[in-house]
UniProtKB/TrEMBL annotation:
High-level lineage: Bacteria, Bacillati, Bacillota, Clostridia, Eubacteriales
HTH araC/xylS-type domain mapped to chain residues: 221-318
Keyword DNA-binding annotated: yes
Superkingdom in the source lineage: Bacteria
One Pfam assignment: AraC_binding
Designated name of the protein: HTH araC/xylS-type domain-containing protein
Swiss-Prot/TrEMBL keywords: DNA-binding, Transcription, Transcription regulation
Molecular functions per Gene Ontology: DNA-binding transcription factor activity; sequence-specific DNA binding
Amino acid sequence: MDQWLFEQLQKITPEEQNYLDGDEQVNRDIYTKTKGFEIDSQLFLKQKKLVTVRRHSRFIEFPEHRHNYIEIVYVCAGTLTHYMEGKALTMRPGDLLLMNQHVKHSVKRAAIGDIGINFIALPEFFDIPIQMMRRQNVIADFLLGTLRQNHTVPQYLLFRLNGQRHISNLMENMIASMAGESENEDVINQYSMGLVFLYLLNHMDKLAHNSSQNYEDVVIQATLKYIDTQYRTAVLSHIAEDFNQSLSSVSRLIKKNTGYTFVELLMRKRFQKALMFLVETELPVEKIAANIGYENQSYFYRQFKARYGMTPSQYRQEHKHDAQIRI
Protein backbone atom coordinates (compact mmCIF):
# COMPACT_ATOMS: atom_id res chain seq x y z
CA MET A 1 0.00 0.00 0.00
CA ASP A 2 1.11 3.57 -0.70
CA GLN A 3 2.89 4.87 2.40
CA TRP A 4 1.04 8.19 2.46
CA LEU A 5 -2.34 6.43 2.28
CA PHE A 6 -1.38 3.97 5.00
CA GLU A 7 -0.30 6.81 7.30
CA GLN A 8 -3.62 8.57 6.72
CA LEU A 9 -5.55 5.42 7.57
CA GLN A 10 -3.59 4.92 10.79
CA LYS A 11 -4.48 8.35 12.20
CA ILE A 12 -6.66 8.35 15.31
CA THR A 13 -10.03 10.04 14.71
CA PRO A 14 -11.87 12.19 17.30
CA GLU A 15 -14.36 9.33 17.76
CA GLU A 16 -11.53 6.89 18.46
CA GLN A 17 -9.86 9.34 20.84
CA ASN A 18 -13.06 9.42 22.90
CA TYR A 19 -12.90 5.64 23.23
CA LEU A 20 -9.26 5.84 24.28
CA ASP A 21 -10.23 8.50 26.83
CA GLY A 22 -12.73 6.20 28.48
CA ASP A 23 -15.99 6.09 26.55
CA GLU A 24 -17.19 2.49 26.83
CA GLN A 25 -20.05 2.56 24.32
CA VAL A 26 -20.20 3.35 20.61
CA ASN A 27 -21.51 6.84 19.92
CA ARG A 28 -24.65 5.82 18.05
CA ASP A 29 -25.46 9.40 17.03
CA ILE A 30 -22.63 9.14 14.51
CA TYR A 31 -24.24 6.15 12.84
CA THR A 32 -28.02 6.31 13.13
CA LYS A 33 -31.01 8.53 13.89
CA THR A 34 -33.27 5.67 14.96
CA LYS A 35 -33.62 3.71 18.21
CA GLY A 36 -32.62 0.46 16.55
CA PHE A 37 -28.99 0.16 15.55
CA GLU A 38 -29.35 0.38 11.77
CA ILE A 39 -26.46 2.36 10.31
CA ASP A 40 -27.77 5.00 7.91
CA SER A 41 -25.91 5.56 4.63
CA GLN A 42 -27.17 9.14 4.43
CA LEU A 43 -25.05 10.08 7.44
CA PHE A 44 -21.93 9.25 5.41
CA LEU A 45 -22.77 9.67 1.72
CA LYS A 46 -22.53 13.11 0.21
CA GLN A 47 -25.47 14.28 -1.92
CA LYS A 48 -25.96 12.21 -5.09
CA LYS A 49 -23.01 9.94 -4.24
CA LEU A 50 -23.45 6.19 -4.58
CA VAL A 51 -20.46 5.05 -2.54
CA THR A 52 -17.96 6.21 0.05
CA VAL A 53 -15.40 4.64 2.37
CA ARG A 54 -14.93 4.87 6.11
CA ARG A 55 -12.29 3.23 8.24
CA HIS A 56 -13.67 0.90 10.89
CA SER A 57 -13.55 2.57 14.31
CA ARG A 58 -11.00 0.97 16.62
CA PHE A 59 -10.63 0.70 20.42
CA ILE A 60 -14.28 -0.32 21.04
CA GLU A 61 -16.43 -3.45 20.88
CA PHE A 62 -18.82 -2.61 18.06
CA PRO A 63 -22.27 -3.96 19.04
CA GLU A 64 -24.66 -5.91 16.82
CA HIS A 65 -26.06 -3.77 14.05
CA ARG A 66 -27.21 -3.80 10.45
CA HIS A 67 -27.10 -1.32 7.57
CA ASN A 68 -29.51 0.18 5.05
CA TYR A 69 -26.85 -0.23 2.36
CA ILE A 70 -24.47 -2.87 1.02
CA GLU A 71 -21.22 -3.02 2.97
CA ILE A 72 -17.91 -4.27 1.62
CA VAL A 73 -15.15 -4.64 4.21
CA TYR A 74 -11.51 -4.73 3.11
CA VAL A 75 -8.67 -5.33 5.55
CA CYS A 76 -5.47 -3.38 4.90
CA ALA A 77 -3.51 -4.42 8.00
CA GLY A 78 -3.90 -6.44 11.19
CA THR A 79 -7.13 -8.36 11.72
CA LEU A 80 -10.87 -7.71 12.06
CA THR A 81 -13.22 -10.23 13.65
CA HIS A 82 -16.90 -10.14 12.75
CA TYR A 83 -19.52 -12.14 14.62
CA MET A 84 -22.56 -13.25 12.64
CA GLU A 85 -24.92 -16.20 12.75
CA GLY A 86 -23.06 -17.51 15.78
CA LYS A 87 -19.74 -17.62 13.92
CA ALA A 88 -16.54 -15.64 14.37
CA LEU A 89 -15.05 -14.64 11.02
CA THR A 90 -11.54 -13.26 11.42
CA MET A 91 -10.35 -11.26 8.43
CA ARG A 92 -6.69 -10.74 7.56
CA PRO A 93 -4.89 -8.37 5.16
CA GLY A 94 -6.34 -8.63 1.65
CA ASP A 95 -9.57 -10.34 2.76
CA LEU A 96 -12.85 -9.05 1.36
CA LEU A 97 -16.30 -9.37 2.99
CA LEU A 98 -19.55 -8.50 1.19
CA MET A 99 -22.73 -8.10 3.27
CA ASN A 100 -26.24 -7.23 2.18
CA GLN A 101 -28.60 -4.90 4.03
CA HIS A 102 -30.07 -7.66 6.19
CA VAL A 103 -26.97 -9.04 7.88
CA LYS A 104 -26.78 -8.44 11.64
CA HIS A 105 -23.25 -8.54 12.97
CA SER A 106 -20.93 -7.21 15.63
CA VAL A 107 -17.19 -6.53 15.49
CA LYS A 108 -14.51 -7.35 18.04
CA ARG A 109 -12.49 -4.47 19.48
CA ALA A 110 -9.79 -3.53 16.97
CA ALA A 111 -6.32 -2.40 18.03
CA ILE A 112 -4.30 0.49 16.57
CA GLY A 113 -2.70 -1.75 13.93
CA ASP A 114 -6.00 -3.19 12.72
CA ILE A 115 -6.97 -1.24 9.61
CA GLY A 116 -10.29 -2.20 8.06
CA ILE A 117 -12.04 -0.15 5.39
CA ASN A 118 -15.83 -0.14 5.07
CA PHE A 119 -17.23 0.59 1.61
CA ILE A 120 -20.69 2.08 2.07
CA ALA A 121 -22.55 1.52 -1.20
CA LEU A 122 -26.12 1.99 -2.39
CA PRO A 123 -27.56 -0.87 -4.50
CA GLU A 124 -27.44 1.34 -7.61
CA PHE A 125 -23.66 1.47 -7.34
CA PHE A 126 -23.56 -2.15 -8.52
CA ASP A 127 -25.49 -1.61 -11.78
CA ILE A 128 -22.28 -1.37 -13.83
CA PRO A 129 -20.43 -4.21 -12.02
CA ILE A 130 -23.42 -6.52 -12.64
CA GLN A 131 -23.41 -5.64 -16.34
CA MET A 132 -19.66 -6.30 -16.52
CA MET A 133 -20.07 -9.84 -15.15
CA ARG A 134 -22.85 -10.78 -17.63
CA ARG A 135 -23.32 -14.47 -16.87
CA GLN A 136 -24.97 -15.88 -13.75
CA ASN A 137 -22.57 -16.55 -10.87
CA VAL A 138 -22.36 -16.45 -7.08
CA ILE A 139 -21.37 -12.77 -6.92
CA ALA A 140 -23.99 -11.63 -9.43
CA ASP A 141 -26.67 -13.60 -7.57
CA PHE A 142 -25.61 -11.91 -4.32
CA LEU A 143 -25.76 -8.44 -5.89
CA LEU A 144 -29.08 -9.05 -7.64
CA GLY A 145 -30.51 -10.20 -4.31
CA THR A 146 -29.71 -6.79 -2.82
CA LEU A 147 -31.94 -5.17 -5.46
CA ARG A 148 -35.04 -7.24 -4.66
CA GLN A 149 -37.36 -5.39 -2.30
CA ASN A 150 -38.98 -8.61 -1.05
CA HIS A 151 -35.64 -10.39 -0.53
CA THR A 152 -34.87 -9.99 3.18
CA VAL A 153 -32.55 -12.96 3.73
CA PRO A 154 -29.17 -12.04 5.30
CA GLN A 155 -26.39 -12.88 2.86
CA TYR A 156 -22.63 -12.45 2.95
CA LEU A 157 -19.57 -13.63 1.04
CA LEU A 158 -16.06 -13.76 2.51
CA PHE A 159 -13.04 -14.05 0.22
CA ARG A 160 -9.60 -14.81 1.63
CA LEU A 161 -7.33 -13.09 -0.86
CA ASN A 162 -3.89 -12.72 0.66
CA GLY A 163 -1.40 -12.39 -2.19
CA GLN A 164 -3.89 -11.38 -4.92
CA ARG A 165 -2.06 -8.17 -5.77
CA HIS A 166 -4.23 -7.15 -8.72
CA ILE A 167 -7.30 -7.10 -6.44
CA SER A 168 -5.59 -5.24 -3.60
CA ASN A 169 -4.29 -2.63 -6.08
CA LEU A 170 -7.82 -1.93 -7.28
CA MET A 171 -9.22 -1.77 -3.74
CA GLU A 172 -6.47 0.61 -2.58
CA ASN A 173 -6.95 2.83 -5.65
CA MET A 174 -10.65 3.15 -4.81
CA ILE A 175 -9.87 3.94 -1.17
CA ALA A 176 -7.40 6.63 -2.24
CA SER A 177 -9.80 8.16 -4.76
CA MET A 178 -12.57 8.43 -2.17
CA ALA A 179 -10.22 9.85 0.44
CA GLY A 180 -10.11 12.92 -1.81
CA GLU A 181 -12.58 14.09 -4.41
CA SER A 182 -12.36 13.81 -8.18
CA GLU A 183 -14.63 14.28 -11.17
CA ASN A 184 -16.55 11.17 -12.29
CA GLU A 185 -15.42 9.43 -9.10
CA ASP A 186 -18.52 7.22 -8.77
CA VAL A 187 -18.36 5.95 -12.35
CA ILE A 188 -14.62 5.25 -12.12
CA ASN A 189 -15.16 3.33 -8.89
CA GLN A 190 -18.09 1.40 -10.36
CA TYR A 191 -15.86 0.10 -13.15
CA SER A 192 -13.04 -0.54 -10.67
CA MET A 193 -15.36 -2.59 -8.47
CA GLY A 194 -16.56 -4.44 -11.56
CA LEU A 195 -12.94 -5.38 -12.28
CA VAL A 196 -12.55 -6.57 -8.69
CA PHE A 197 -15.56 -8.86 -9.11
CA LEU A 198 -14.25 -10.20 -12.43
CA TYR A 199 -10.94 -11.03 -10.76
CA LEU A 200 -12.83 -12.69 -7.89
CA LEU A 201 -14.58 -14.93 -10.41
CA ASN A 202 -11.15 -16.17 -11.42
CA HIS A 203 -10.40 -17.00 -7.77
CA MET A 204 -13.65 -18.57 -6.57
CA ASP A 205 -11.60 -21.12 -4.68
CA LYS A 206 -10.84 -18.20 -2.32
CA LEU A 207 -14.51 -17.96 -1.30
CA ALA A 208 -14.13 -19.13 2.29
CA HIS A 209 -17.62 -18.39 3.64
CA ASN A 210 -21.02 -18.02 2.05
CA SER A 211 -24.00 -17.28 4.30
CA SER A 212 -26.05 -20.02 2.65
CA GLN A 213 -23.47 -22.39 1.18
CA ASN A 214 -19.76 -22.78 0.84
CA TYR A 215 -18.18 -22.56 -2.59
CA GLU A 216 -17.78 -26.30 -3.07
CA ASP A 217 -21.46 -26.87 -2.26
CA VAL A 218 -22.39 -24.27 -4.86
CA VAL A 219 -20.30 -26.02 -7.52
CA ILE A 220 -21.66 -29.47 -6.67
CA GLN A 221 -25.28 -28.34 -6.68
CA ALA A 222 -24.77 -26.58 -10.01
CA THR A 223 -23.11 -29.69 -11.44
CA LEU A 224 -25.85 -32.05 -10.32
CA LYS A 225 -28.57 -29.72 -11.59
CA TYR A 226 -26.78 -29.35 -14.91
CA ILE A 227 -26.43 -33.14 -15.34
CA ASP A 228 -30.04 -33.66 -14.27
CA THR A 229 -31.41 -31.30 -16.92
CA GLN A 230 -28.80 -31.53 -19.68
CA TYR A 231 -27.66 -35.16 -19.41
CA ARG A 232 -27.89 -35.70 -23.16
CA THR A 233 -25.23 -33.09 -24.02
CA ALA A 234 -23.56 -32.25 -20.69
CA VAL A 235 -19.79 -31.63 -20.70
CA LEU A 236 -17.42 -30.78 -17.85
CA SER A 237 -16.12 -27.70 -19.69
CA HIS A 238 -19.51 -26.03 -19.19
CA ILE A 239 -19.11 -26.16 -15.38
CA ALA A 240 -15.46 -25.08 -15.61
CA GLU A 241 -16.42 -22.03 -17.69
CA ASP A 242 -19.31 -21.08 -15.41
CA PHE A 243 -17.02 -21.02 -12.37
CA ASN A 244 -13.92 -19.72 -14.15
CA GLN A 245 -11.92 -22.77 -13.09
CA SER A 246 -9.67 -25.18 -14.96
CA LEU A 247 -11.03 -28.56 -16.00
CA SER A 248 -8.65 -30.32 -13.63
CA SER A 249 -9.65 -28.14 -10.63
CA VAL A 250 -13.38 -28.69 -11.16
CA SER A 251 -12.84 -32.40 -11.80
CA ARG A 252 -10.96 -32.81 -8.50
CA LEU A 253 -13.60 -30.84 -6.60
CA ILE A 254 -16.44 -33.01 -7.96
CA LYS A 255 -14.59 -36.24 -7.18
CA LYS A 256 -13.73 -35.03 -3.66
CA ASN A 257 -17.31 -34.09 -2.78
CA THR A 258 -19.31 -36.84 -4.51
CA GLY A 259 -16.92 -39.78 -4.74
CA TYR A 260 -17.52 -39.89 -8.49
CA THR A 261 -15.96 -38.22 -11.51
CA PHE A 262 -18.08 -35.98 -13.72
CA VAL A 263 -18.21 -38.73 -16.35
CA GLU A 264 -19.35 -41.28 -13.78
CA LEU A 265 -22.10 -38.97 -12.53
CA LEU A 266 -23.20 -38.34 -16.09
CA MET A 267 -23.25 -42.04 -16.93
CA ARG A 268 -25.30 -42.81 -13.81
CA LYS A 269 -27.88 -40.23 -14.86
CA ARG A 270 -27.96 -41.41 -18.48
CA PHE A 271 -28.46 -45.03 -17.51
CA GLN A 272 -31.09 -44.05 -14.98
CA LYS A 273 -33.00 -42.46 -17.87
CA ALA A 274 -32.30 -45.48 -20.10
CA LEU A 275 -33.86 -47.83 -17.55
CA MET A 276 -36.88 -45.58 -17.28
CA PHE A 277 -37.36 -45.55 -21.07
CA LEU A 278 -36.92 -49.32 -21.27
CA VAL A 279 -39.48 -50.04 -18.56
CA GLU A 280 -42.03 -47.28 -19.18
CA THR A 281 -42.00 -46.90 -22.99
CA GLU A 282 -41.88 -48.99 -26.14
CA LEU A 283 -39.14 -46.91 -27.75
CA PRO A 284 -36.59 -48.94 -29.74
CA VAL A 285 -33.29 -49.42 -27.91
CA GLU A 286 -31.43 -47.47 -30.59
CA LYS A 287 -33.75 -44.50 -30.05
CA ILE A 288 -33.29 -44.69 -26.27
CA ALA A 289 -29.51 -44.67 -26.67
CA ALA A 290 -29.70 -41.56 -28.86
CA ASN A 291 -32.14 -39.86 -26.47
CA ILE A 292 -29.74 -40.15 -23.55
CA GLY A 293 -26.69 -38.91 -25.50
CA TYR A 294 -25.11 -42.04 -27.02
CA GLU A 295 -24.77 -41.86 -30.77
CA ASN A 296 -22.43 -44.86 -30.73
CA GLN A 297 -24.84 -47.79 -30.35
CA SER A 298 -22.09 -50.37 -29.80
CA TYR A 299 -20.64 -48.35 -26.91
CA PHE A 300 -24.07 -48.04 -25.31
CA TYR A 301 -24.66 -51.81 -25.55
CA ARG A 302 -21.23 -52.61 -24.07
CA GLN A 303 -21.66 -50.20 -21.17
CA PHE A 304 -25.18 -51.39 -20.46
CA LYS A 305 -24.18 -55.06 -20.35
CA ALA A 306 -21.14 -54.32 -18.18
CA ARG A 307 -23.36 -52.42 -15.73
CA TYR A 308 -26.40 -54.70 -15.57
CA GLY A 309 -25.16 -58.09 -16.80
CA MET A 310 -27.69 -58.28 -19.63
CA THR A 311 -28.64 -56.53 -22.86
CA PRO A 312 -31.15 -53.65 -22.92
CA SER A 313 -33.76 -55.91 -24.54
CA GLN A 314 -33.31 -58.55 -21.86
CA TYR A 315 -33.62 -55.90 -19.15
CA ARG A 316 -36.86 -54.62 -20.73
CA GLN A 317 -38.30 -58.10 -20.82
CA GLU A 318 -37.43 -58.87 -17.20
CA HIS A 319 -38.36 -55.53 -15.65
CA LYS A 320 -41.22 -54.07 -17.66
CA HIS A 321 -43.61 -54.63 -14.75
CA ASP A 322 -41.27 -53.29 -12.09
CA ALA A 323 -42.48 -50.43 -9.93
CA GLN A 324 -38.95 -49.26 -9.13
CA ILE A 325 -35.92 -48.85 -11.36
CA ARG A 326 -32.46 -49.81 -10.13
CA ILE A 327 -29.75 -47.23 -10.92
